[in-house]
Amino acid sequence: MRLALPLPLHQQFDYALPAGAAPPLPGARVKVRFGRQQLVGICTDPAPADPHERLRPLTAVIDATPALDPEQLALGHWLSEYYHHPLGEVLSLLLPPAARRGASLAPATVTGYRLLGSPGDLTRAPKQAALAARLVAGPAPRATLLTEGHSAATIRALSQKGHLETIELDPGPAPTAVATQAPLTPRPEQAEAIEAICDSFGRFAPFLLEGITGSGKTEVYLQCMARVLMRGEQVLVLVPEIALTPQTRARFEARFGTAAALHSQVSDGERLDLWRGCRDGTVSVLIGTRSASLTPFARLGLIIVDEEHDGSYKQTEGLRYSARDLAVKRAADLRIPLVLGSATPALESIANARAGRYRHLILRERAGGAAEPQVRLLDIRGQSLEDGISMDLRRAIGAHLDAGAQVLVFLNRRGYAPSLICGACGHVATCAACDQPMTYHRQGQPSGDVRGQLRCHHCGARATTDGSCEACAAQALVPVGVGTQRSEEALKRWFPQVPCYRIDRDTARSKARLQAHFEAIASGAPALLIGTQILAKGHHFPNVTLVAMLGVDGGLAAADYRAPERTAQLIVQVAGRAGRAERPGEVWIQTLQPENPLLTGLLREGYPGFASRELERRREAGLPPAALMALLRADSPEATAPGAFLTRLRDGLRRAHAERGAGAAIELLGPVPAPMQRLGGRHRFQLLLLASERALLHRALRWVSRHGHDIRTPGHLRWSIDVDPLDCV
Ligand code: ADP
Ligand code: ZN
Question: How far is CA 467 from CA 424, 425, 471, in A?
């Protein structure tokens, strides 16, 4: 029989069935020996192999019922072909981690009790009598008995008398807690969207729900979900980062009582339970990050992808899939509706909507009646900044705080300063493995004291600094540039009368502290918030009346062709966090480029106007979504090997295409050094493939995955295929 094994090889393996064993069904897990390893593989074809071939027998068949159902198997084949990733590794990823190691996938059971015989006279033990009476009607789960008020001691006592039998019960539908929130009355725009989505139950219908922050998208999701649940079906909600936005989940729970959450902090044991619960239909709502898109469902009725433009939906290593695109594929296969929601949709999604592939639903007004913020550009050319902030901005911050409001300062750079330079010799403290400046992080030192930690934000390397230069030993290191720690320090110095909360990946590590910060901000008292793009996700700050954006010039100057899209999304997302009806927000963008067409266009025409112009620019340049892209990357500790490898790949690909007369239809750009030329001690190169048609791109990539392995490479070289890459870095 044929097996897919979790190995980085584009091939399947034939094994024999041990004598007397029942053959596994397709999708069942088996244990095999491969070389000296024990692997868990998936049966893809149970047909016996040619009896003349001498095959090694597999070790054991794990599943009588296949671990992967036909939909999952088909999904695995599709993922493997679309992303050109080995099937065995893909199928393994479709299983929860514990199951990849062989854990049982039989339906989950819960411990419960059955009454044995008649308990006799229990008048002297009224609690035990009550428990016995409760169980006369039939067995019950232990957890249910406890919530009903029967104590563990009572259960134990009745058990010890021999009146209870401990049994494993089918959990049935997950107990639903009581919902505490009623649906709101939808506004006409919302009602229209809800009707359109609910009219499409039972067939494939993709929707792009575009609406600024606060326009009531989540309310639309909630009302559609309620209708799906009434049909006895399940809902999958994908979100970018649930750990940072506990209130998202809280809102779903307030409406439906329970909502299961799947994210990176969920343990392997819980993952297994969630996976089984979704597969068996006992979990009705699953909210999760990227990997939740791979979960099997018994009766999925609707998929929602919130903040669909978010880059975290794309996996950047291993199987480089996009959870958003996978969601579209699954909705099509399962014939169910799908809602992609965002205030700033990805340009691909807008192009799909304009081409008629998605139905475009737009929410134009803010639901709570909040006015849209006023955005202005603050020209800082020729001005001297103190800790990255201009005098005008500092005065404006003071005025808003004096008026009793809150101010949000946005800066997308963690740490104190992006680099340290030696005032004596000009040497910059640099990561030896990445050739990039190390970011300086302070650890409670008084201002002016240049001691603390140096961190490489690319590879994670850390070092301590005592303020002396590693090149000339002078005690003369000075911070260059501004990170959130430095702005925080300055703001605290200027405005000591108000609390200042910093929210970035460093402070978000403590969830309790993060929660405390959000609660303090929600109280509405005057406060300063300083933070990175974490602030652009999921939160609304109604008492913030001034949003100040620093450092957007860096985004404008980035080389990546997607930088304008990302910068525009970030500006709109951050700007949208502020204000409410009686206190419309103000947004100040501090920039050295007040005439930059992206900025002025965005201010004049808003995101939709920006999107039109940017799509036109991409079309003229022949870039996605007007063309299809794949990126081949190679890296090695040795400087020339990656470039040499990609050159051979490119030449081979050109020859193969010329032979088929398809040479002109596919463009090969490179190889060139990657924008981050060195990372973690490895030299990096890339080769870009652009094609006008999906089929052509895939033909080229099939050639690459088949022949790339034939090219003799030194053992230290790694290479990969990235289809629809997001970052060309
Ligand atoms: P979004 O998801 O687009 O950011 P939300 O659904 O979170 O928007 O709505 C923003 C705010 O407006 C929330 O406080 C929500 O409770 C409120 N809201 C949404 N729809 C309505 C409605 N129809 N009537 C009154 N308030 C609403
Ligand atoms: Zn580094």
Answer: 12, 14, 12
- Quote the DSSP letter at residue 55: -
CA distance 66 to 24: 8
pLDDT at 725 over 90: yes
Go through the chain and tell me how many residues it has. Answer: 729
Candidate of 187, 212, 217, 218 to mutate for ligand 1, largest count of ligand atoms within 8 Å of Cβ:
218
Nearest to 614 by CA among 602, 604, 603: 602
Taking Cα atoms as reference points, which of 19, 20, 17 lies closest to residue 3? 17
Both tokens assigned to 3: 């097996």
Distance CA 498, CA 406 (A): 9
Q: Which two tokens stand for residue 402?
A: 């004096």
Question: Taking the C-alpha atoms of 690, 694, 696 and 702 in order, what is their torsion angle to the nearest 10 degrees?
Answer: 100
| Cβ neighbours around 169 below 10 Å, total | 16
* HSE (side-chain half, CA atoms, 13 Å) at 697: 22
Average pLDDT rounded to a whole number, residues 348-370: 89
Which residues, 6 or more positions from 345, have their beta carbon under 8 angstroms from its beta carbon? 208, 210, 308, 309, 353, 611
State the DSSP string of 475-504: S-EEEES--HHHHHHHHHHH-TTS-EEEES
Instruction: Tell me which residue has its CA closest to atom 19 in ligand 1.
Output: 216
What tens digit of pLDDT does each residue of 78-122 get?
Answer: 999 999 999 999 999 999 999 999 888 887 677 889 988 777 778
Tokens of 566: 């990302």
CA of 681 to the centre of ligand 2 (A): 8
Note the ligand closest to the C-alpha atom of 459.
2
Element (H, E) at 148: none
Contacts (Cβ under 8 Å, ≥6 apart) of 256: 176, 179, 225, 226, 229, 284, 285
Encode pLDDT of 540-598 as tens digits. Answer: 788 889 999 998 888 887 778 899 999 999 999 888 887 765 677 889 999 999 999 88
What sign does the dihedral 219-221-222-223 (CA atoms) show? Answer: positive
Separate counts of helices (H) and strands (E) for the chain: 20, 30
SS3 of the chain: helix, strand, coil, percent, to 5: 35, 25, 40
Residue 221 Cα: closest atom of ligand 1: 6
For 506, list phi and psi in degrees, rounded to 5: -75, -45
User: Under a CB-based contact definition with an 8 Å cutoff, are residues 296 and 69 in contact?
Assistant: yes
CA dist., res. 517 & res. 522, Å (int): 9
**Cα–Cα dist 723/321, whole Å:** 8
Count the neighbouring beta carbons within 10 Å of the beta carbon of residue 595: 10
Greatest Cα-to-Cα distance within the chain, rounded to the nearest angstrom: 93
* CA pair distance 482, 549, nearest whole angstrom: 13
Dig out the tokens for 559 from the structure. 């080389």
* Predicted confidence (pLDDT) at residue 213 exceeds the cutoff of 90: no
Q: What are phi and psi of 486, to 5 degrees?
A: -70, -45
d(CA 157, CA 164): 9
Helix (H) or strand (E) holding 109: none
Instruction: Say which ligand is closest to the CA of 247.
Output: 1
Best mutation site among 215, 219, 287, 308 for ligand 1 pocket (most ligand atoms within 8 Å of CB): 219
Ligand 1 pocket by Cβ (under 6 Å): 184-187, 190, 211, 213-219, 367-368
Average pLDDT over residues 599-625: 92
Helices (H), 151-302: 152-160, 188-198, 217-230, 246-256, 268-280
Tell me how far apart the alpha carbons of residues 200 and 353 are, in angstroms, rounded to a whole number: 17
Rounded Cα distance, 643 and 637, in Å: 12
Q: Is the dihedral of CA 421, 425, 426, 430 positive or negative?
A: negative
